Amino acid sequence: MISKTMENALNKQIELEGYASFFYLSMASWCDREGLEGCAKFLHRQSDEERNHMLRIFHYISEVDGHALTPNIPQPPHEFESIQQILELVYAHEQKVTKSINEMLGLCYKENDYNTLNFLQWYVEEQREEENLARGILDKVKLIGNGSQSLYFIDQELERINTQQLAAEAASGEA
Ligand code: OFO
User: Ligand 1 pocket: which of 50, 100, 131 to mutate (most atoms <8 Å of CB)?
Assistant: First the structure.
């Protein structure tokens, strides 16, 4: 059985993952409206992934006899200045999530909760990959530039990354 402290921390993490899902969904919608199809596809997939991350924790809490709570998710912003700003926000949010996962690992040691520690290892790996991906794309966007001419190339690049990720997921048997 999980401690109340750990249950609360995991439910807080559900909120963060749920917010990430809505945040990226809102970004995808903005990209769709702006005609950035490749960017929209990429962000829709990121949003789906975050929802899965949320559900993973949800099921885990139930499995260890805790009470998983549906999150109270605030409305994310709906308007953005540019795709560069969106990617900066994605990167910042991923860093925030990583910090939260790291804090939970500390809590696992404090609570002697090695089941949760083990469960969270997957998130440690995932956050490393996601931060790396977001930072890499942001660096490229900065190189390509943010002008209207550049948008076409950025959009193509995100479409390419998205296709690459889908293929990698299919190969590894992930959803
Ligand atoms: Fe949930 O993986 Fe990023 O935030």
Answer: 50
User: Quick one: DSSP state of residue 75?
Assistant: P
Smallest CA separation from ligand 1 atom 4, residue: 94
- What is the pTM for the complete model shown? 0.93
Q: How far is the CA of 107 from the centre of ligand 1 (A)?
A: 19
Q: Domain-by-domain residue ranges, the chain? A: 4-172
The pLDDT tens digits for 9-51 are: 999 999 999 999 999 999 999 999 999 999 999 999 999 999 9
Give per-residue pLDDT as tens, 67-93. 999 999 999 999 999 999 999 999 999
Nearest CA to ligand 1 atom 3: 94
Rounded CA separation 110/81 (Å): 43
Separation of 167 CA from ligand 1 center, angstroms? 20
Assigned architecture for domain 4-172:
Up-down Bundle (1.20)
DSSP string, 100-160: HHHHHHHHHHHHT-HHHHHHHHHHHHHHHHHHHHHHHHHHHHHHH-SSHHHHHHHHHHHHH
